[in-house]
Write a structure and sequence with these properties.
It is a single chain. The protein is an all-alpha fold. α5 crosses α6. The chain has nine helices and no strands.
Length: about 180
């Protein structure tokens, strides 16, 4: 209730600022919220299969028959795969040489490991800058875009922002590493 109250206060003060609130269960919204509510339904087995096939067609290494077999063998994994976000994470991070995660915790741990250690998954990528410096540059760019009310920046704007900040390295190096 306290969080919903804070959201309502924020929304009334800054009515032009868009916001998004996600909850697993709409019952968590004990108080009415003056906003559009969108519910994302869970997938059934046919939709899971179709989604996995589409991921495979787009280049995923997922073995769809093996996935189906794993979903039958592990009910927790099957429940997880019914949630579109978790199915997408599962398909995007699956590697043929590794067993699939069995629960949400394992899936999230695996995903975070990939995000925090990309060099293990893309050894051909050689960054000139540390992850910390890249994150700082990405945060600066995101902040400046928000300040300008934009969702994307031109190369000229990127160059100006990166060169005017305290980053100390050419904007071309940052842009090259950020794109990788």
């Amino acid at each position: 209730r306290r969080v919903l109250g804070l959201i309502q206060d924020f929304s009334s003060r800054y009515s032009a600022v868009p916001w998004l609130l996600t909850v697993r269960d709409a019952k968590a919204l004990a108080a009415p919220v003056d906003a559009n509510v969108l519910k994302i339904d869970v997938f059934d087995d046919t939709q899971i299969h179709a989604f996995a096939e589409a991921y495979k067609d787009a280049g995923s290494a997922i073995d769809v028959p093996e996935l189906t077999s794993q979903l039958r063998a592990f009910p927790d994994l099957r429940l997880l795969a019914r949630i579109p976000l978790f199915l997408a994470l599962l398909l995007a991070t699956a590697r043929p040489s590794e067993s699939l995660p069995r629960n949400r915790s394992e899936l999230l741990e695996h995903y975070l490991h990939i995000v925090l250690h990309p060099e293990e998954y893309k050894p051909s990528v050689s960054l000139d800058l540390s992850a910390v410096r890249l994150r700082e540059a990405a945060e600066q760019l995101a902040f400046e875009a928000l300040e300008m009310g934009k969702t994307k920046l031109s190369e000229t704007e990127l160059d100006r922002i990166l060169n005017s900040s305290r980053i100390g390295v050419s904007s071309a190096v940052y842009m090259s590493d950020l794109v990788l």
